[in-house]
Amino acid sequence: MPSRRAILIGLLTMSGLSGRSVAQQPKKPAALPPLEVVATRRPEATHDVPASIEVISGRDLRARGAASLRDALALAAGIAIAPGGDAGPASSVPEFWGLREFDAFLLVVDGIPWGGALNPDLATLNLRDVERIEILRGPAPVTFGATSFVGVIHVVHTDAAATARNLALRGGSYGTLGVAADLGAPSTGAWKSRVSADLDRQKFKDDRTSASRGHALWRVGRSTGERSTWFYADVTLLRQDPASPHPREGPGLSTAVPLDANHNPEGARLNENRFVLSGGWQRPVLHGSLWGTTLSFTRSSPRIFRGFLTDISNSPNNATGLLENININDVYADSHVIWASQSHVRIMTGADLLFAQGEAKGATFTYTAPLDGSTAAPVPEPTTLDKDAEDRRIFGGAYGSAEWRPSSRLTLSGGLRLNLTTERRGETSPSSNNTKLSGSVGAMFGLWERDVDHLRVFANFRSTFKPAAFDFGLAENEGILKPETSRSYEGGVKARLSDGRLDFEGSVFRMDFKNLVTATVVNNLPALINAGSTRFQGFELASDLRLPHDVLARASYSFHDGKFVDFVQAFDGTPTQLGGKRFEMSARHLALAGLSYAPDLGLLVSANLNYTGDRYLNKRNTALAPKYLTVDAGVGYRVRRAEFRLDGRNLSNRRDAVSESEFGDAQYYRMPARTFVAGVVLQY
Fold this sequence. Notes:
A hairpin with a 2-residue loop joins strand 9 (about 175-190) and strand 10 (about 190-205). By secondary structure, the protein is mainly β. It has a single domain, classed as Maltoporin, Chain A (Beta Barrel), CATH 2.40.170.20. It has 3 helices and 39 strands.
């Protein structure tokens, strides 16, 4: 593995290169990263907020040919994105601060929690026509409520007033095909409109595994000064043929099962239709204050028919399957006022509501799957759906935050939120009600400031609360789990040097978790349990270098130490204390390096390396998975109205275990095989 010393030397070398480059170039500040709104709802530079925040511009995404969340965040510090997972090949499983859980982070799309009061709907996330992606590492206890512990990913699409028109075509390995268009739609007066649409089919080396998507996004808005109104409609039709997780035997993945075996029954599917309607406005009020309101309604209808091995043999009924039809409605409403600055103080107050109601009807069955997965077993679908899972959630809250700058170099900030939550599972079960406070305090001090360059230190404390996750598992008869809570501490330094060309951020963190929800298996079906006390701590270093001639270099290193503190779980009927064990699937060492060259015209080149250290596959720490390195690269050429490119993903063809299944006991999804995609983007 690359040593910490080597990584630190690399970061310092980048700084030295920056100094030499600037000495040979005119003193012209580099283009600074775009502003973010995820932390405070106000547009702010990332280095003005006392928290670990990163913004990836749409220009940088296009320079690297990013089409998936893993591609987009491949160079994000301290984050590992496992492609695929239980939600299908179109989905992914993010990891922040060493915690890889499907609901521990918050996904936001254009200001709307994407998944509402339930779980992030990553399979339907679309990255067409993206203006920027904002990433907040650590909890968000104030602005978005009881929904995030370890991070927020906020995807912001291009404004409705944008006039660029693009047509994209692509094709690649295993029969992957896609076509997409982004263009301004007919407008009237001050109203502007924009449409993005795409049809995409992605296929994989894994047997009978694919994801097909039809998607359309329509944005319309009117903006005059500080007064704006907008509407938004998003439609996704997703059809997935799921892969199978690979079972583990003892300390490693089973050699009795071929690499790309698929044990799903014939006709297996993970389909979803998702419709989103939202709108909002911003108005100036009260002598320069701004009042903003957002409303959103989402309807989604997942349809599931799948199975997984329960016995690693060719014996009869060696697999368990499930059929499940789910219907979910969720509503999001937020209204807040950003008060005009008074005596170096900025205040925001607001209230929001997340409502979700979902019901699942399903059935389970056993069937016989060939161990080598060479053929799909014909299985009659159950006609009697005798199992159900239902949940209704209301997360409401009132919140406020303040930022005080007693001097030009010192910023003090804080926020408080009153959470009011209620939940009921099923028609007759009692409801669970919680009234909890959450909040944060932070400080930032500028040690040195000169024009755009600076050296600043920051620290924050965040206390977070969240009702336990619900995933419509048909084995969930254990009632409502205990709410999850956490306290986190973070401190670090942010530096910008060489006329803005070099960005550096280093941070240390610790998060103490209680009642973390983790997956288990009950009667061969997935279920959830509380995991007692856990602790996540470590440090992260990241450096960006924007060289002349459209060259961007980036490197980062993260050390994550996630451990159980006090958690007893039964294995084979024997209660086992897991205190002191490392959290499963959490690598201690993450490192990356990337380089892109993306001028407006001419040759395009991008390459990045991602290193993942060893990690335990199981809670008892008896199965250690080895470290691995993945390599992605792309090359292209831009002319005045067209771009041609070829991108390769996982060029090292690593097939390591990257996420754990919640459906099969001791089963894991592997990194997808090496792929190549060629494409052309036409501007007209």
